[in-house]
Amino acid sequence: MKTIGLIGGMSWESTALYYKIINEEINKRLGRLHSAKIVLYSVDFDEIERNMSKERWDQTALILNGAATKLMSAGANCIMLCTNTMHKNAPDVRRSVSIPFLHIAEATAAEINIAGYKKAALLGTRFTMEEDFLKKEFNSKGIEIITPDRDDMKLVDKIIFSELVKGIVKDESRDMLLQILDNLHEQGAQCAILGCTELGIILNEADAPLPLFDTVYCHAMAAVDFALNK
Questions:
Q1: DSSP string covering the chain, please?
Q2: 196 assigned to active site
Q3: What are the structural domain ranges in the chain?
Q4: Which one is the CATH code of 4-103+218-227: 3.40.50.300, 3.40.50.1860, 2.40.50.140, 3.90.1150.10?
Q5: Catalytic residue of the set 83, 85, 147, 215
Q6: Which of the residues 78, 82, 191, 196 is marked catalytic?
Q7: Which tens digits make up the pLDDT trace of 131-158?
Q8: pTM value?
């Protein structure tokens, strides 16, 4: 079994989900007392968020590149960024190491393509929805992306940073997110990408008006496949 290197802490809530999902899937596939070989570098999210809010991407790259090289030195066979927004720095992180980098959008796009969907709604932080660093990855895999309007983007971003990253889940916030998804469904979205690793904490497919692809789950499954040479 190969060793998975996780750059986490953005937030620690979603990083805990990565750890749980990967270990559960390894045990499901291998049985007995098997668990995943994982090395985790957890960054200080406040330092990341302060630089991100000022669009100091060179500073966030330094932090994440340093984490990646430490994981490689600790024996990791691959690197994963356990966050969607910080995939803004994915090219930098990929260049900083000589081991495979498992991209969150590539893993999610693979699952969407298997399901046969061509047009997906994208929810995430404001940066993720406004900028193209994830959109272009999905587009390159034949998936058209649509996003909420500006006011709804601000609402989604507020729910993520004011509530979800702190582990706060409110029914009224869930209802607002579901209404946004319903609006995007009416605009032609065939499925929705939970493009923030915290969104899976509050949304599930049973309540949603269209199929959901949780990037945490898709990314974690890609890690398991890599670890087991699938």
A1: -PPEEEEE-TTHHHHHHHHHHHHHHHHHHH-TT----EEEEE--HHHHHHHHHTT-HHHHHHHHHHHHHHHHHTT-SEEEES-SGGGGGHHHHHHH-SS-B--HHHHHHHHHHHHT--EEEEE--HHHHHSSTTHHHHHHTT-EEE---HHHHHHHHHHHHHTGGGT---HHHHHHHHHHHHHHHHTT-SEEEE-STTGGGT--TTTSSS-EEEHHHHHHHHHHHHHTT-
A2: yes
A3: 4-103+218-227, 104-215
A4: 3.40.50.1860
A5: 83
A6: 196
A7: 999 999 999 999 999 999 999 999 999 9
A8: 0.92
